[in-house]
Design goal:
Order of helices and strands: HEHEHHEEEEHHE
Strand content: 15-25%
CATH architecture: 3-Layer(aba) Sandwich
Radius of gyration: 17 Å
CATH topology: Rossmann fold
CATH superfamily: P-loop containing nucleotide triphosphate hydrolases
């Protein structure tokens, strides 16, 4: 069976993660990219592969998505930002960056929020990172953004990955995403062009160069 681009890319990232690991030091990996780039699918597969044949508890690798740090819809609405949900200003950026910086401290278990897409809200303390877990993979749109406070994140990463499809490919995937969630084609196009693609262009133009740059030109749709 022919291996997909996603699987090959995950193997490459896993190989580099293992090469950069150091005894007694937690390895924090950042996987960034615009919405619908495939970064979430890649990050999940990297974690799955790193945990393959490893003890179940504690896990060898844990996934921490940035999306858990979305501000609540009621707060966004009060600030006139609900229609821009997913833009940099709609996240608790300082709280997220502080949490990432603290991952180097392995003396205690830490708890983090997780975003529920069906409910469209973040659920507190849904992700636990065990003190003996040596690898944490973080994925999100703005991990490599070259502006404060996001630019501070680079200090925490042992390895960075950026997923860079073309804007044409992103548009196709975004239309697929929003029609899958029940929007008609016109509404899906409006949502993609008024918000997601605006954010995508910001990310593509203003992210610092990663250690690994990928195109993710596979026929699977993901975040």
């Amino acid at each position: 069976m022919k291996q997909t681009t996603l699987a090959r890319d995950a193997e490459r990232v896993c190989r580099d993660v293992r090469e950069r690991m150091r005894a007694g030091v937690r390895t924090v990996v950042g996987i960034a990219g615009p919405p619908a780039s495939g970064k979430s699918a890649l990050a999940q597969l990297v974690v799955d592969q790193l945990n393959n044949n490893a003890p179940v508890k504690p896990p060898f690798a844990t996934l921490l998505p940035m999306d858990g740090y979305h501000l609540d819809n009621a707060l966004l609405e009060s600030r006139g930002l609900l229609s821009r949900k997913g833009a940099p200003e709609t996240f608790d950026a300082n709280g997220f960056c502080e949490a990432v910086a603290n991952l180097s401290d392995c003396r205690r278990e830490t708890y983090h929020p997780k975003f529920d897409r069906e409910l469209d809200l973040s659920i507190a303390n849904s992700i636990a990172i065990h003190p003996e877990t040596p690898v944490v993979v973080i994925e999100g749109n703005y991990l490599l953004l070259n502006s404060d406070p996001w630019s501070k994140l680079n200090e925490a990463f042992a390895l960075t990955v950026f997923v860079r499809p073309t804007l044409e490919e992103l548009k196709k995937r975004l239309l697929h995403r929003w029609t899958k969630y029940g929007l008609d084609e016109e509404a899906a196009l409006r949502r993609a062009e008024s918000n997601d693609l605006v954010n995508a262009q910001l990310i593509l133009r203003n992210s610092i160069r990663a250690d690994i740059e990928l195109t993710q030109s596979f026929n699977e749709f993901g975040d």
